[in-house]
Write a structure and sequence with these properties.
Elements: H1 6-21, H2 27-46, H3 50-69, H4 73-110, H5 128-143, H6 153-161, H7 174-177, H8 189-222, H9 229-260, H10 278-284, H11 287-298, H12 308-326, H13 330-348, H14 368-389, H15 393-403, H16 421-436, H17 452-469
Length: about 475
């Protein structure tokens, strides 16, 4: 079930009414309703894969209960590894089996040995990368004694399968989200309004910005061999806004929908395209995944403590794993390597914490230096996205090589290119709203809050733009991850 579908437009109000007007007097009933609703939400895509979520839930609940009573270190480690191997085993099989098989065969073919192994027609379960990391955070934190293991299986099931953020995040930590299932929730009108505003902005990002940019990004990438360098730059820029509008739009809808039910999810995007360096970009882009890898992989490896070579190793590991998390393709690994190369000089010169506050805080416009830094970071990001979007390594290199050719200085041109002008105008409008709302959790959170006429004009304008310019109903990009 997609957030931008009629099915969800019917599903959400039904669950909302049942939640606040039928089960509101009993916390367990509310949690049970959320768990059942979440399974319906996920099963709408393919009911056969509900068994995966249920099995992961049962395993991690049992491991948590066992860790509650176990004091012997070796047995505690064994329990933790059971959880890790089960969860990553499922993820590895469904997502990476064919990738490793094909590369294994290719490696032996390179050495002159022919091996015939058949790949499997495996369907990648939607959201498996997200809920796998979410439930792993529970067992790891219980193992580290940062979190008390739960005795409430219903609450734990609702936590693992919570439908607003089940298939594309944010990846919530058990320490933040699980305790919210233990507490009585009371309906707050202000929270509901705030949630609806964030849903509205998320829908705008997805169906107006992302889906319209997708039409031109897809065309240009699919026909890159026939287009000039300047047009390919345009395609990369369109994809840059497509993936941001698509993914951050999903996060906004997920966070807003959670607010309707009395839950607070953490911010997942903080206006990353206004970053002044790559370190700041990664503090603002897909925050839940970046911090997950930081806390559960980078820091345990030693982080930036110790020798320089160890720090360099850890940086490359974290970015390569981050790239590989996105998909079984060498393009994602190259994308991760590029970002590691961008990030490493900033870390080694200890400038990675230079830009903590949002750019030009309290000002209307950035300084010339800030604008230059922001523009440079944006260009580096756009270049890296080419590898993320390309179908193969060969496609990525042919795409970039054509950009760095004489054709870069010719006018952009592609079939129906003039029809892209309204999309470009919409992107500019989007950037203006994001810029002036950059100090909030989402762009329209408090915009014009003292001016009712302007505030409601903005809301109606966004609604009109959604109805007029909504692109073709496309899946969210991160469903494939």
């Amino acid at each position: 079930m997609f957030f931008n579908s009629l099915d969800f437009a019917v599903f959400l109000p039904i669950v909302f009414v049942l939640y606040w007007f039928v089960t509101n007097k009993c916390l367990k009933l509310q949690n049970a309703l959320l768990a059942v609703s979440s399974y319906i939400f996920y099963g709408w895509w393919d009911w056969r894969f509900l068994s995966l979520i249920l099995f992961s839930t049962l395993v991690d609940y049992a491991v948590g209960r066992a860790l509650a009573h176990e004091t012997i270190i070796l047995k505690r480690r064994l329990l933790l590894w059971i959880s890790i191997l089960v969860n990553l085993g499922f993820l590895g099989f469904f997502k990476y089996y064919n990738f490793f098989l094909e590369n294994f065969v290719s490696a032996f073919s390179f050495l002159g040995q022919v091996i015939n192994l058949n790949s499997l027609h495996v369907i990648l379960p939607v959201g498996i990368s997200f809920y796998t990391f979410q439930t792993l955070s529970y067992t790891i934190d219980v193992y580290k004694r940062k979190l008390e293991p739960t005795k409430d299986f219903v609450a734990f099931s609702a936590f693992v399968s919570f439908f607003p953020q089940l298939v594309a995040g944010p990846i919530e930590r058990a320490t933040n989200l699980l305790p919210q299932f233990y507490k009585r929730r009371r309906f707050k009108y202000s929270d509901a309004i705030d949630g609806l505003k964030q849903i509205l902005w998320g829908l705008f990002k997805k169906v107006v910005i992302a889906d319209n940019c997708a039409k031109y990004a897809n065309y240009i990438f699919d026909n890159s061999a026939d287009l000039n360098g300047s047009t390919l730059v345009l395609g990369a820029v369109f994809f840059t806004f497509q993936i941001y509008g698509d993914f951050s739009g999903y996060s906004d809808i997920a966070i807003g929908a959670s607010r309707l039910f009395g839950f607070n999810l953490k911010q997942n995007f903080a206006f990353p395209y206004f970053s002044r360096d790559i370190a700041e970009f990664w503090r603002r882009w897909h925050i839940s995944l970046s911090t997950w890898f930081r806390d559960y992989l980078y820091i345990p490896l030693g982080g930036s403590r110790g020798r320089i070579l160890k720090t360099i190793r850890n940086v490359f590991i974290i970015f390569i794993v981050s790239g590989f998390w996105h998909g079984a393709n060498w393009t994602f690994i190259i994308w991760g390597l590029l970002n590691a190369l961008y990030f490493l000089p900033i870390l080694l010169t200890k400038n990675n914490r230079n830009h903590i506050e949002i750019i030009a805080k309290g000002k209307y416009l950035p300084s010339f230096k800030e604008f230059t830094l922001m523009s440079g970071t944006f260009i580096l990001t756009v270049f890296a996205w080419i590898f993320f979007r390309a179908e193969t390594i060969e496609h990525a290199f042919s795409y970039t090589s054509k950009i760095f050719s004489k054709s870069l200085f010719s006018m952009p041109y592609f079939e129906n290119g003039t029809l892209a002008l309204p999309t470009a105008v919409l992107v500019v409008f989007f950037l203006i709203i994001e810029w002036f709302g950059r100090q909030d959790k989402y762009a329209i959170e408090s915009m014009f809050y003292k001016h009712n006429i302007l505030k409601w004009f903005l809301y109606y304008l966004i609604v009109i733009l959604i109805f007029v310019f909504a692109g073709s109903n496309q899946e969210f990009i991160y469903f494939q991850f």
